[in-house]
């Protein structure tokens, strides 16, 4: 997952609104979102290489989402898959802050990551660079491959677009939410971060929706949880920027 836009406890109808993109190499095998056979409580897409996930929710309302922290120097051959961080939270019953305390004790097993865990009542943010557990405040937030609300162009843009739409609409139009994370406009060079990947790749990674020959946005996900604890989960998948499928699920927590 490379971009998570979300609003928490700031809307008249919805406790939580998430609009997110997962960016990955096209060759990495992935399954579409669904309830897992081995963990029927979990609704998520799945990385079929190492069997983790980047974003998921359970029937009991536990939710977790992860992005990589972009720093080529932090990648390593002997690191544990970051996808297990989300899966492990979704399959436990510990409180979110307790889970993150336990995660902090072993955070060097992983390359750089950001994770949001919790439920529709409370969310916590953690990364293994700063190593601080932060309770997420009410409002609209965005997370890419640096820290929560770091003002990268895509973070500022996605956060602003989501906040504007939610402020103007009580009822959600799913297509309009997907339009937000379909924005493929590259940022200007003066706005680009410097994360060690070179200016050409920084340009290609700067849009909300990424498309390069080998890597790009593989899926977009909308999750809505209203004040009656009704969940709407919609995932759209893509191949090299071309729409493939849509999966739609609803249930009550």
Structural class: alpha+beta
Individual helix count: 5
* CATH fold call: Penicillin V Acylase, Chain A
**Overall pLDDT metric:** 97
Distance N to C terminus: 24 Å
- The CATH superfamily is identified as Penicillin V Acylase, Chain A
The unreliable regions are none
Q: Give the helix proportion (percent range).
A: 10-25%
Largest sheet: 7 strands, antiparallel
Overall tally of structural domains: 1
What is the gyration radius calculated from CA atoms? Answer: 17 Å
State the strand order across the main sheet.
3-4-5-6-7-8-9
Write the element-wise H/E pattern from the N-terminal end onward. EEEEEEHHEEEEHHHEEE
Named at the architecture level, the CATH assignment is 4-Layer Sandwich
| Number of strand elements | 13
CATH class: Alpha Beta
The global form is globular
Strand content: 35-45%
């Amino acid at each position: 997952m490379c971009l998570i836009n979300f609003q928490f406890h700031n809307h008249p109808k919805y406790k939580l609104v998430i609009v997110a993109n997962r960016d990955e190499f096209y060759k990495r095998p992935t399954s579409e979102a669904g309830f897992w056979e081995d963990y029927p409580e979990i609704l998520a897409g799945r990385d079929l290489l190492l069997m983790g996930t980047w974003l998921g929710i359970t029937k009991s309302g536990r939710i977790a989402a992860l992005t990589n922290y972009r720093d080529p120097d932090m990648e390593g051959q002997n690191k544990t898959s970051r996808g297990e961080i989300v899966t492990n939270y979704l399959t436990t019953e510990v409180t979110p802050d307790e889970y993150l305390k336990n995660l902090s004790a072993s955070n060097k097993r992983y390359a750089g990551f950001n994770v949001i865990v919790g439920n529709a009542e409370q969310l916590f943010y953690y990364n293994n660079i700063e190593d601080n557990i932060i309770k997420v405040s009410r409002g609209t937030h965005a997370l890419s491959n640096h820290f929560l609300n770091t003002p990268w162009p895509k973070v500022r843009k996605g956060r602003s677009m989501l906040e504007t739409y939610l402020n103007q609409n009580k009822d959600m139009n799913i297509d309009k939410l997907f339009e937000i994370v379909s924005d493929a406009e590259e940022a200007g060079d003066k706005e680009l971060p410097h994360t060690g990947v070179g200016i050409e790749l920084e340009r290609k990674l700067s849009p909300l929706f990424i498309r390069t020959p080998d890597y790009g946005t593989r899926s977009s996900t909308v999750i809505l949880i209203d004040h009656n604890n009704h969940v709407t989960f919609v995932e759209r998948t893509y191949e090299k920027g071309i729409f493939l499928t849509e999966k739609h699920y609803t249930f009550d927590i």
